[in-house]
Amino acid sequence: RRKMNLKSERRGIHVDQSELLCKKGCGYYGNPAWQGFCSKCWREEYHKARQKQIQEDWELAERLQREEEEAYASSQSTQGAQSLTFSKFEEKKTNEKTRKVTTVKKFFTASSRAGAKKAEIQEAKAPSPSIHRQASIETDRVSKEFIEFIRTYQKPGQDIYKQCKLFLDTMSHKRDLSIEEQSECAQDFYQNVADRLQTRWKVPPEKVEKAMDEVEKYIMTRQYKYVFCPETTDDEKKDLAVQKRIRALHWVTPQMLCVPVSEEIPEVSDMVVKAITDIIEMDSKRVPRDKLACITKCSKHIFNAIKITKNEPASADDFLPTLIYIVLKGNPPRLQSNIQYITRFCNPSRLMTGEDGYYFTNLCCAVAFIEKLDAQSLNLSQEDFDRFMTGQTSPKKQESDSFSPDVCLGVKQMCKSLDLLSQLNERQERIVSEAKKLEKDLIDWTDGITKEVEDIVEKYPLEIKPKSQALAAIDSENVENDKLPPPLQPQVYAG
């Protein structure tokens, strides 16, 4: 300040001391490069402007996402009334989605967070821009919630955040490790953080458990795209095998599994639908704890359905068959991948204790039962089981005499037609089978005759002798053979 005053006085310029102070009035001197603010006030103003820009970004992104979902929902609801073909509808929906995604990308490019957004989008491997945008938004949201959470822990929270950042940096350099080795690293990290909170910072057990849930949420949201169903494993192959198996078992009825649930009761039917929805929703979650929560909600709906049907609390013997039926009816996507992901990266204390671990164990047992399900498991004969698996017949067909009086004539006629088509299909398959058998018999008979003829020809070969000279007639003039007597001459005797 003295140097500035001296220079100004030498130049004959009067300098007002108030003009050199910070514009915010904190008492410190400002800097023209910082628009008249001091360094501290400039950081505060910049932070406020950045938070405001982030909030505006979130609001605009949520509004665009909402508009996209509303446009898609309206197009789905009016699909039956429109005369457009399916290909035109798909083209229209793709164009609409591309336009909105382009708008969001332009918006975030112009924002103060463009660099971070662009880096996260380039790291992702999925081809869809909407998936990139959704993953980036969710990652930012989880990071923000995690920072707000650890602030309540003060110094232990700072230590937790430092350990998490160090773990993420370490895992970014270990992408070439096998999924089992990455799982061991994650489990060791959970254990080390929990021990650190308990021994060093003396955090109560209930707060340690809550902190570990937030740590798992933060870590696995950032690691999800690298460790869920990786290409180095056969998880995807197992998913397809289980999905194909469940589709082949679509004919299994609740009576075959001894399921104590009556879907004719409206309230029970709603519980079954909610259970199926929860088990399917598991695939949309990114955190192992959230996936376990979906399994738990599904299991509770199952227990409620059994309780309403039987008018008494459900038992474990009733729960497992019903869970198997729900899995068969829902056919959850990427079931094996989700189970493996939870097993590898979930907090071990949650899997080994509590209701979440119990329900998860039952789900694993249900999947193993479905993979090994046979005729004996359903109390069926092997012949009936094979017919049901091949689609020749179905146990769900109803005869006309078994319909209740309330069933409309259209349903009865439809069931009769399906029964007739099934009989015709069986008859056609039987005729085709007999025709193929007859064709095979004809080919075998022709081959047998040909072989017999060849054997006879080989055993008795055909020999062609030279043509012998013809004998001369007795009455002819035989000049070449003098040994023959002369021809007889008729003689006349007188009476």
From TrEMBL:
Every A20-type domain range: 16-50
GO biological process, one term: protein transport
VPS9 domain mapped to chain residues: 236-379
GO molecular function: DNA binding; guanyl-nucleotide exchange factor activity; small GTPase binding; zinc ion binding
Region Disordered, annotated ranges: 69-88, 118-137, 476-495
SUPFAM superfamilies: Glucocorticoid receptor-like (DNA-binding domain), VPS9 domain
Main location: cytoplasm
Subcellular location: Cytoplasm; Early endosome; Recycling endosome
Keyword annotations: Acetylation, Cytoplasm, Endocytosis, Endosome, Metal-binding, Phosphoprotein, Protein transport, Transport, Ubl conjugation, Ubl conjugation pathway, Zinc, Zinc-finger
Keyword Metal-binding listed: yes
Pfam families per the UniProt record, alphabetical: DUF5601, VPS9, zf-A20
GO cellular component: cytosol; early endosome; endocytic vesicle; recycling endosome
SMART domains referenced in this protein's UniProt entry, alphabetically: VPS9 (SM00167), ZnF_A20 (SM00259)
Protein name: Rab5 GDP/GTP exchange factor
Organism: Loxia curvirostra (Red crossbill)
